[in-house]
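To whoever is on call:

I kicked off a structure prediction for a single chain this morning and the downstream step that reads the tokens threw a length-mismatch warning. I double-checked the sequence; it's 111 residues and nothing unusual in it as far as I can see. Pasting both halves so you can look.
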Amino acid sequence: MSTVTIGCKLPNGIHMQVGDSPRVRILGWNNNEIAGLSHGITREVPVSLWEAWRKEHADSKLVTNGIIFAEESEKRAKDKAKDNKEQKSGFEQLAQIKETDKAGVLGKSDV
């Protein structure tokens, strides 16, 4: 069986399933085993599942914006994730509030 490696920029990833196929958990960057990589990497996803899922979700921003992508090898997936590190998914972490921030900034209490 032919497989692909999938990169996913969503924080918690997704579950990928089409029809009666087995459900496959696609890892997000919260489950990333590689420090500094902005995508989760899931190995050995059946090509048939990826192609059917991609076709079913062809108009989704996850596909059109490259938030979820597949590559033939793990190395190529990691390289693509590094190249797309600056791409925004809309689920990025907010900046942390500092003691020196003014009241009203990022929700800091005015009281």
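Update from on-call: the warning came from a stale cache, not from the record. Cleared it. Sanity check on the structure: The radius of gyration is 17 Å.
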